Amino acid sequence: MDRIRIVGGAPLNGSIPISGAKNAALPLMIASLLTPQTVVLENVPRLSDVRLLMRILGNHGVDASIDGKRAGQAEDHGETIRFTAREIVDTTAPYELVSRMRASFWVIAPLLARMGEARVSLPGGCAIGTRPVDLLLMALEALGAQVDIDAGYAVVRAPTGGLRGGEIVFPKVTVGGTHTALMAAVLANGTTVIDNAAREPEVTDLANCLIAMGAKIEGAGTSRIVVQGVTSLDGCRHPVLPDRIETGTYAMAVAMTGGDVTLENTRPDLLQSALDVLMRTGAEISSAPNGIRIRRSGGSIDPVDVTTEPFPGFPTDLQAQFMALMTRARGVSHIRETIFENRFMHVQELARLGAHIRLDGDLAIVEGVPVLKGAPVMATDLRASVSLVIAALAAEGETMVHRVYHLDRGFEALEKKLGRCGAQVERISG
Ligand SMILES: CC(=O)N[C@H]1[C@@H](OP(=O)(O)OP(=O)(O)OC[C@H]2O[C@@H](n3ccc(=O)[nH]c3=O)[C@H](O)[C@@H]2O)O[C@H](CO)[C@@H](O)[C@@H]1O
Ligand SMILES: C=C(OP(=O)(O)O)C(=O)O
Fold first, then answer.
1. By the 8 A CB rule, do 60 and 111 touch?
2. N or C terminus: fewer CB in 10 A for the chain?
3. CATH architecture for the domain at 3-15+243-428
4. Whose CA is nearest to atom 7 of ligand 2?
């Protein structure tokens, strides 16, 4: 199994190209099930989750082909992938596939909308929490679907004549629920109103792609989305949104090590709350042409309290990385996790590097220490793994990060991107 070896201590200087967002690419790929025409996605990140979803979609009959690199195209540019679901050959998503990638549960909506039925394995919990889907199924019911749970599968059927527009009121903000509601409503008869919709940029990106396919959607990016159903959708060409979590992760790495890095192909409005927090820690942040510049030239890291919240609040997907930064702050910070009940698996591993963190329910109390020291570490999920990389970059000596496959799910060319800014990071294969 691959490992990543990091020798800490060097500041980061240079530029890092930000990839397309995993959490936008996955629902966009799934939306290709809605049309027999070709959906061409540009700026798709090279990630294991993308490859796995290509296989899962292939099981339903989607033909996915990666365009060759065009002459003159920048090396850092993501892939262009064509998805064509001319015919849906299977409306079942089996346990073996759904259990390997949670986002694949969302195929339930386009399969139901286009084929009138779907049978999708329930995803179950994972290392960060329970990950329920009751609200996703509630949304489908609100559009007239009959929903049954049978032998670990959600079995959904549209009424005769197809799904019909309805009123979906989410009792709490759910990103997966909003993706599901959108993909079901676009082909329903009549108007659907989604209330308390998620406002995450990845939801807006999905809505924009659906609009380019011919869907009628208003209000994406606000908490009330109105969808006027259409009878069919076309293909389209759509670039995947920049990854705000990758952006924030590298910004936190620079705030941790010091240095001066420009994050390219990204936008500050995608993560303003996290950038505001970083500025309060003492980092300097400014906009750069087509990106964000982050600097910290010595001086201490100030402690800042954060609470994770749905967008536009501080994202749960940056909580672990921010905790890594706070382990070196001059003072005590409080980090409250409100989205997932168990997203503190990195605490034990950060402690192996010398961090002082105490847990009290959903609150982590981080007492900054002057020095971290390298150690062998291992993480159980994607963002926890990268928080260990950030801590290791500022630690004295060598850290070996095990279970690198978590990182490969969500961070394209991590060691290359950090290496070109002066970090000593290498992948050891086997
Ligand atoms: C609001 C939020 O920050 N969502 C995050 C969540 O999206 P993801 O789509 O995985 O999860 P949701 O947004 O649906 O979940 C938000 C909250 O709603 C609850 N819930 C969800 C669905 C449901 O049917 N029933 C239910 O109770 C969840 O337990 C959670 O507490 O994880 C992703 C991966 O880390 C992040 O990128 C998203 O930013
Ligand atoms: C936890 C994440 O992904 P997933 O929802 O696929 O588990 C993530 O993107 O941080």
1. yes
2. C
3. Alpha-beta prism (3.65)
4. 102
The residues, ordered by sequence, that sit 6+ positions from 348 with a Cβ below 8 Å of its Cβ are none
pTM value? 0.97
Instruction: Name every protein residue with a CB atom under 6 angstroms from any ligand 2 atom.
Output: 23, 102-103, 126, 128, 317, 382-383, 410
Which residues have C-beta within 8 Å of that of residue 83, sequence separation ≥ 6?
Answer: 29, 32, 38, 39, 40, 41, 57, 62, 63, 64
Separation of 339 CA from ligand 1 center, angstroms? 7
Q: What is the tens place of the pLDDT at every residue in 17-55?
A: 999 999 999 999 999 999 999 999 999 999 999 999 999
- The domains of the chain are located at 3-15+243-428, 24-239
Give the whole-angstrom CA distance, residue 177 versus residue 295.
37
**Atom 12, ligand 1: residue with shortest CA distance:** 174
Q: What is the ipTM of this complex?
A: 0.98
Q: Is the pLDDT of residue 129 over 90?
A: no
Out of 339, 380, 382, 386, give the residue to mutate to test ligand 1, the one with the largest number of ligand atoms within 8 Å of its CB: 339
Which ligand 2 atom lies nearest to the CA of residue 22?
A: 9
Atom of ligand 1 nearest to the CA of 175: 13
**Ligand that comes closest to the CA of residue 386:** 2
**Phi, psi of 166, rounded to the nearest 5 degrees:** -160, -175
Nearest by Cα to 386 from 371, 404, 372, 364: 404
> For residue 343, what are the contacts with CB-CB under 8 A and spacing of at least 6?
128, 129, 316, 319, 320, 337, 381, 383, 384
Q: What residues are annotated to the active site?
A: 126
CA of 138 to the centre of ligand 2 (A): 22
Q: Do domains 3-15+243-428 and 24-239 have the same CATH topology?
A: yes
Domain 24-239 sits in CATH 3.65.10.10 = yes
Q: Which residue's CA is minimally distant from atom 2 of ligand 2?
A: 382
Ligand number with the minimum distance to the CA of 312: 1
Q: Kindly tell me if the per-residue pLDDT of 225 is higher than 80.
A: yes
β-strands 92-93, 117-121 pairing: parallel
Among the atoms of ligand 2, which is closest to the Cα of residue 23?
9
pLDDT in tens, 368-412: 999 999 999 998 899 999 999 999 999 999 999 999 999 999 999
